[in-house]
Amino acid sequence: MKNLKAEKCLIAYFSRKGNNYVSGKIVNLPVGNTAVVAKMIGELTGGTLFQIESKNTYPDDYTETTEVAQQELRANARPMITGKVENMDDYDVVFLGYPNWWGTMPMPVFTFLEDYDFSGKTIVPFCTHEGSGLGHSEKDLAKMCPTATVLKGLAINGSAAGSAKNSVSKWLDKI
Question: Which domain range does residue 16 map to?
Fold first, then answer.
């Protein structure tokens, strides 16, 4: 791959702050784990950050959020999202970040993917998780964006997100 610093990179990510499952217990995170990793990628690549946000917020309670997320997945829902990348055509590389929800990307990420044409772009997935890795999100991503090049993703354990800069840097060097 080309030098990422020479490419115009977008770091689009979905992250949930507040009550999250971390190392076997529910904790209140002031910043979601995926946002922490997205900011690291932004610092290391010089890319532009864009947060994918659902128009309807998820419940504050972690368990209630997982139930809503599962209902959305079963319904193959496309929740409305706020904000728009006005100059998507300008980006060559899109880093796509998300927590692993029920084995794949949260449904607002699917909405984001359907809102843009990724033809000819390179998509680089990264996710945070508590033991399930990337799940089948890479396959789902390749299926949704067949005219894009999807590179091997990075899975970061959510409890290690704050100290993952070295892992992120090594991953970026490989790609």
Answer: 4-174
For the entire predicted model, the pTM comes to 0.95
CA distance 96 to 59: 23
Provide CB contacts within 8 A for 172, sequence distance 6+.
Answer: 4, 41, 44, 45
Cα–Cα separations (whole angstroms), residue 24 to 20, 108, 131, 145 = 10, 25, 10, 34
- Dump pLDDT digits (tens) for 132-167: 999 999 999 999 999 999 999 999 999 999 999 999
Are 72 and 79 in contact by the 8 Å Cβ rule? The answer is yes
Question: Would you say 150 and 142 are in contact if contact means Cβ atoms under 8 Å apart?
Answer: yes
- Both tokens of residue 53? 């946000």
Long-range pairs for 114-117: beta carbons < 8 A, 24 or more residues apart: 114/78, 114/144, 115/81, 115/84, 116/85, 116/88, 117/88
CATH, residue 49:
3.40.50.360
Q: Are strands 149-150 and 122-129 parallel, antiparallel or unpaired?
A: parallel
132: alpha, beta or left? (left if phi > 0; alpha if psi -120 to 50): alpha
> What gap in Å lies between CA 86 and CA 66, rounded to an integer?
31
Domains: count for the chain: 1
DSSP state of 144: H
Query: Distances in Å between the alpha carbon of 103 and those of 31, 39, 72, 117, 130?
Result: 22, 23, 13, 24, 11
